[in-house]
Write a structure and sequence with these properties.
By secondary structure, this protein is of the alpha/beta class. It contains 3 helices and 8 strands; from the N terminus they run ββαββββααββ. The protein is 16% helix and 31% strand. Strands 2-1-4-3 form a 4-stranded mixed sheet, with helices on one face. The protein starts with a strand and ends in a 6-residue tail after the last strand.
């Protein structure tokens, strides 16, 4: 039996749907990545779903927690440094490349000590833009290859004037 998983390659748009054996090991994964044109070297990190740590290539054997629909993230970033501005305050934290915008927002809400009402009325917006990525967007989609940082402003979702 095989399992369908999705591969997200840092710097490339879209996802690649691939099949892996149910008991996939590192060799199976590297073969699939090679077919996608990915050269895995010491500066390439592979994350499964939203795991905080990359796949340990020194421990061959079965891959951990691969299930149907899993997302495999191939990145040159071991971590993504997220900076969040709120009013006159700024906070920084590192996240795995597969972490979603909603995780950054939850972290920021906690760090800036927003109550639930204020948190619900605020969204993350990319610094210097009006782009408000959906909460399920993964951080590696918001960074450029080789640049492992992303900057957000925590802003009101709607401004009511009057």
């Amino acid at each position: 039996m095989t399992t369908i998983v999705f591969v997200n390659i840092h710097g490339k748009d879209g996802l690649s749907e691939v099949e892996l054996p149910e008991a996939a090991n590192h060799e199976h994964l590297f073969t699939v990545l090679a077919k996608l044109g990915v050269e895995v070297d010491q500066e390439t990190f592979i994350f499964i779903d939203e795991e905080e740590e990359p796949l340990d290539r020194t421990k061959p054997g079965p891959l951990p927690s691969i299930k149907r629909g899993s997302h495999i993230h191939v990145s040159k970033c071991r971590k993504v440094q997220a900076t969040v501005h709120y009013l006159e305050k700024t906070k920084d934290h590192t996240f795995a490349p597969g972490a979603r915008v909603k995780k950054v927002k939850a972290w920021a809400v906690d760090k800036f000590k927003l109550d639930q009402h204020d948190a619900a009325e605020h969204v993350l917006q990319l610094c210097g833009s009006t782009d408000r990525p959906p909460t399920d967007t993964r951080l590696n989609k918001l960074t450029q290859p080789g640049i492992c940082t992303v900057c957000f402003d925590l802003v009101p979702e709607k401004r009511v004037e009057g």
